[in-house]
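Friendly challenge for the regulars: who can give me the structure tokens for this chain first? No prize, just bragging rights.
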Amino acid sequence: MSEMIISEAHFYLSSFLWGMALVAIYDVFRIFRRIVRHKKLWMAMEDFIFWIVAACLVFRMIYQYNNGTIRFPGMVILFAGMVLYHYAISNPFVHFLNKRVIFPIKRFIRKIHKVLKNVRNKVKLLLSRKMRPKQ
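First reply, four minutes later:
Bragging rights claimed.
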């Protein structure tokens, strides 16, 4: 095959894989948000920073493989990688992780918190009885 065709195929494959990688990285944010609750402003800032970094990474890839020329087929293939990963891998994976890992950990932490809160309340009660002046 000609070197130009190989170069194009490499660019398109890289675009596809970068699309998948970006959604995989975003999954880390999705999973973290399920573990730690965020306010809307904080989530918006995380998303903004993520997409700025993602745009820089994609532009770097385009610059490296295509001399900085943004071409429509490359963007379509990048988007196709994102969509394919999101529906084929991401949603089932995040759902599985949430159901089998995150939820049990959260439930365990809530139980520990409840026990510690009860212990704290009993200690406060005992201390308050000892500190009360005798009548």
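Residues 3-97 form one domain. The chain is about 90% helix and 0% strand. Your move, everyone else.
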